[in-house]
Every structure is written in structure tokens, then in C-alpha cells.
Amino acid sequence: MKGKIKKGIVLGIGLASLVKKEAEKHTKKLVKEGKLHSKKAKTILGKVVAEAKKEGTKIEKFMVAEIKKEMKKAKPLVKKGVGKIKNKAKKKAKKVVRKVKNRSKKR
To answer: CA 5, CA 3: separation in Å to the nearest integer?
Structure first.
């Protein structure tokens, strides 16, 4: 599950970064060609970056929701596993206590 979480976070960050770089590249090209005024390019770039951040936030919220779902599913399994471990530990502890008692009786 850790791998999925990391992939989701990296995806969100990487997506926003990629969008920003590509948008900068294309707006600079349009400004050089004279097809777009520099002020308008900055405005467009700002809107694109803001939109990319919104998408990153959506991805983050989705990942948090998925993590919560998985944690709810895992909680009963963890409790069950802990219960089994406790039972095994109790059995082994009783066994050790019996051995110690038997040894002390023999002496």
C-alpha cells in the first residue's frame, strides 16, 4: 500500500510540474513568434498553473479518501492478527511457566 500512496503523491506533484513546464514552453514560443502578447501569456500561464494546482489537490483528496478506505478494511484484520499473536504468546508463556514449575518440583 505504501507504494500506491507514493505513486499517487508523485503523480500529483509530477503532473503539476509537467503542466507548468509545458505551458511555459508553449507561451514563450507564442510570444517569440509574436502571436501572443507577454502580459497575456503571463495571465494564461497563471491560469494554467492554478488549474494544475487544483487538479493536484483533487488527486491528493482522492488519495486520502482511498487511504482511509483501506485503513478501515485493514483494521479488523489487524485486530484479528493481534488476537492470534496474543493467544500464541499466552500459550507459550503458560508452557514456560509449567516447565519452570516442573523443574522446581523435581529439585
So the answer is: 5
